[in-house]
Design brief:
Protein name (chains A, B): FAD-binding oxidoreductase
Shape of chain A: globular
Radius of gyration of chain A: 23 Å
Family (chains A, B): Belongs to the FAD-binding oxidoreductase/transferase type 4 family.
Keywords (chains A, B): FAD, Flavoprotein, Oxidoreductase
Largest sheet of chain A: 9 strands, antiparallel
InterPro entries (chains A, B): Alkyl-DHAP_Synthase (IPR025650), FAD-bd_oxidored_4_C (IPR004113), FAD-bd_PCMH (IPR016166), FAD-bd_PCMH-like_sf (IPR036318), FAD-bd_PCMH_sub1 (IPR016167), FAD-bd_PCMH_sub2 (IPR016169), FAD-linked_Oxase-like_C (IPR016164), Oxid_FAD_bind_N (IPR006094)
Oligomer: homodimer
Chain lengths: ~550, ~550
């Protein structure tokens, strides 16, 4: 297997085409076992793709001497920067037709070099695609146009240091190219943590989280990375924007909020002062089963509208619960977790469990006082939780993207998408997604489809449901089938005025839905801002703004 | 006394020139007593100004017939819309030289009329100044230019209804012209509350809060109005921007965050879906005294960095504590309050008091279980708290702007300004403000100045200090003295990279400081957005963008 160079901070090899580490991929036998779960899939897995089988081609542009040491045209590196890690990307690699492979990959080490690269690219019509961990599942890091002379993938992972720590204000200045484990390792000696743990934690960077408004660890309250930003430095073709470090401000529209979610279209986020927390000392988790999913929704709403603030409050529907091993009897399962640096959390957990039981929950088990990462945090962050359903869910959570790739090798089409809506619309929305997206998947393939749902983040006024659709595909036709499923999903979300994305970002795959969602005057304003900051239109073309 | 028509929802008469209700103003004897507190003030108060003494002039433009029923040229109404309620505004009225009086005042009743008024104004070069409660203390609602043919004050207080309440998602669609008490009165029958109580609560509107990113009730956590917005409708000259109602979204930069804080320069916010809460059932408050202000700062930091989340955590320095009656022995006083709709808060209060005592606090008293509005909430919201220092502070808090106007009548110059900074800079910042702004006030007047400080909002990573400067002025020279004090304050804030405003907004008075604070590329983007949305540059000219 051809592979990209090792990621920073680890000796394990990253896969050039699939999720995460190459050595964590399911082997052929495991793929066959996965395929057996879905009627109609292949008898044998598609072969693991190799860069050597691609026609990578020679770069269409040469960097200037002064920047040459930052730039590579190595085919393995370029192939590993050609796409993100959506199912659509995986299957294109498996079929030997990945997205456009960038001409060059640059790895700057400080802001000045980023600015110099933008200057050079702007003068030559070279598209610049910012690249962090490359874990985009929305087509955020590939070039799909044809109006640029060449494509430069701007890999920021050499800018991965925590530059300053302010223990008094509990904050740190962190370079944007730091992967999750890399930044947490540098914060740990100070007793502090960013505590932002998206599912992609190991394979995504601070800059990626900021550029896509990633959703993190917390199931309630402040979970989007937006809320943990004190200030940003963003290199744009029109100069570097550095906001002041402030705990809060009312001085005009927030400069940071314009760049948060800008997905590389307005500038390259190079560093940020981030708000940190003490590491939690008290934790407790529990799970509660529900025979009725609607009752479970009501339980979650009651907890979200209490002031209990669980760190984890994830509801798995029966299909999700079964797949993750959290239940085996067709129950939905609510996974609850609490944590605190200051005081024991057993009382809050007990109150939340009581609320769940009062809303029709039953059974379940409780893990008191564990130090465990009940919350989807990586193994390094703590021991396994005491509650078995919680523990099963957690390991399945981190394993899921690998299993998706195994299913893809068996010819399955797998799509995951997420949204958010206010509580009044949630039950009907979830029903409509199940019915309509399932039908679309079956219609496109002739095979039965499974549509599972979990709630990943809950708010007093609404919730973020996350859907997984899996269906056996037709060999060679997977991208079109995936497009049909995506279109059906977008149609339902639009009808219910549910956001096209809660935390996966827009990228290129969600552009049609985003364009329908975004108010027209705001689109005018954003386009004008883009013209002002990126006059040569080189920054991540096709993302957010045409 | 000439006065504007009564405010909605009350039969009391609003003052056309001073804070709040005319019948709440200190009388001449009370003014003399106030003046005695500041050496060098006048022996007798300046007379209360009358509209009849102004040269209001005839309007420079006539509205079209179709809109005429929405528009008035009544001199009393126009005078009441000429300025906000900064000290600078008050003293200009007292000296008979208010800001430019608008030619017309319009009171639209729905979005279509707002759009029609903008169309009309855009075609004729008429400046449009959005006007809610008129409580701006930063020159946000007056015209200071000379490039427009006429000035229209767009008063939104006829759009003051709660249009829909969603009790499932705990949210409501509210028209932007609703004053605080007007919107709370409409939410109360549903058992819900917005719980946004700025000091100006009675005299400011939802639209004003949104346009200025107002800071509210909560001393910790989410306090800026920004965090309570589900969606906005904004009428711009380029069309109406209506975002979807969402509990959260990661779809590109937040449309709402561009309009939040736009201060009328990008569009007219006409309604918003706002996140609500159950009304609190449990409350407790306490005060703790500190002989040493630095120790008190450390106590506040410890509480802010705990997970106790007090609703109120306001630290008064000795001068503030004395003036408000919260202490009489030169102590600083920390006012603490907790509230919850769900569960008793005595335990959290006790933990916070313990933290304060462990950091050098002493004495103080505690009011357990009271229903009282310990938090600056208006009387309608609950009974007085049991703690006497808390109670004294609360009534002084609501009375302060009236006293400021009384001092102004005695020839004093009074400036209040606020900021926010990270904890590492806070002690030096507060010292520098006291020393340098005090010196500037004395230098400008020849009189001793008092500079008091309180902390209004606290965060894990920093704090928002609020300063009050008072000094006897030189008759007729008050505006220049105030400008000198403002310049000195801005200089210190800039040096410490402390925001020019935490919750008072930028308006016209803070433009120099704002222009220094705002990153240059963001200014480019904002200007481009303004050009796209307001091509005729009629919206609140001079605010945020030239």
């Amino acid at each position: 297997m051809s592979a990209s160079p090792s990621g920073p901070g680890t000796s394990r090899t990253r896969s050039w085409w699939g999720w995460g580490y190459a050595d964590a991929h399911p082997d052929d036998a495991a793929c066959v076992a996965l395929g057996a779960l879905l009627p109609g899939t292949l008898a044998r897995p598609l072969p693991v793709p190799r860069v050597a089988d691609l026609s990578v081609g020679r770069p269409g542009v040469t960097p200037p001497t002064a920047l040459a040491h930052l730039v590579t045209s190595d085919p393995d590196v370029r192939a590993a920067h050609a796409m993100g890690r959506a199912y659509r990307d995986i299957v294109r690699a498996l079929r030997g037709r990945p997205g456009r492979i960038p001409d060059l990959v640059a790895r700057p080490t400080h802001d000045r070099e980023v600015a110099d690269l933008l200057d050079w690219a702007g003068g030559r019509g070279v598209a610049v695609i910012p690249f962090g961990g490359g874990s985009s599942v929305v087509g955020g890091v590939e070039y799909r146009g044809d109006t640029h002379r060449a494509v430069l993938s701007l890999d920021l992972t050499s800018m991965d240091r925590v530059l300053e720590v302010d223990t008094v204000s509990r904050s740190a200045r962190i370079q944007s190219g730091a992967l999750g484990p890399v930044l947490e390792a540098q914060l740990r000696p100070h007793g502090l943590t960013l505590r932002h743990f998206p599912q992609s934690f190991e394979f995504s960077t601070l800059g990626g989280w900021l550029a896509t408004r990633a959703g993190g660890h917390y199931a309630t309250g402040r979970t989007h990375i937006d809320d943990f930003v004190q200030s940003l430095s963003v290199v744009t073709p029109a100069g570097t924007s550095t906001s002041w470090r402030l705990p809060a401000s009312g001085a005009g529209p927030s400069p940071d909020r314009l760049f948060l979610g800008s997905e590389g279209a307005l500038g390259i986020i190079t560093e940020a002062w981030m708000r940190l927390q003490e590491r939690p000392r008290h934790r407790a988790s529990a799970s509660v089963a529900f025979a009725d999913f609607q009752q479970a929704l009501e339980a979650v709403r009651a907890i979200a509208q209490s002031d209990l603030s669980p760190a984890n409050c994830r509801l798995l529907d029966p299909g999700e619960a079964l797949l993750s091993g959290a239940s085996h009897d067709g129950s939905a399962v609510l996974v609850l977790g609490f944590e605190s640096a200051a005081s024991p959390v057993d009382g809050r957990l007990a109150s939340a469990v009581d609320l769940a039981l009062a809303h029709g929950g039953h059974g379940g088990s409780r893990g008191r006082g564990g130090r465990g990462g009940h919350d989807g945090t990586p193994a390094a962050d703590g021991d396994a939780p005491a509650d078995t359903a919680v523990s099963a869910w957690r390991s399945a959570f981190l394993r899921m993207p690998y299993l998706r790739d195994g299913l893809a090798r068996m010819g399955a089409v797998v799509e995951t998408f997420e949204t958010a809506a206010t509580w009044d619309r949630v039950p009907a929305l979830i029903d409509a997604v199940r019915t309509e997206v399932g039908s679309a998947a079956t219609k496109a393939t002739g095979h039965p489809a499974t549509v599972n749902c979990r709630l990943t983040h809950v708010y007093p006024d609404g919730v973020a449901p996350y859907f997984t659709v899996a269906v056996a595909g037709r060999p060679g036709d997977e991208v079109r089938i995936w497009d049909d499923i995506k279109a059906a999903a977008s149609e339902v979300l639009h009808r219910y005025r549910a956001t096209i994305t809660h935390h996966h970002a827009v990228g290129r795959d969600h552009r049609p839905g985003y364009d329908l969602q975004r108010p027209a005057p705001f689109a005018l304003a954003l386009r004008a801002a883009k013209d002002a900051l990126d006059p040569h239109r080189i920054l991540n073309p096709g993302v957010l703004i045409d």
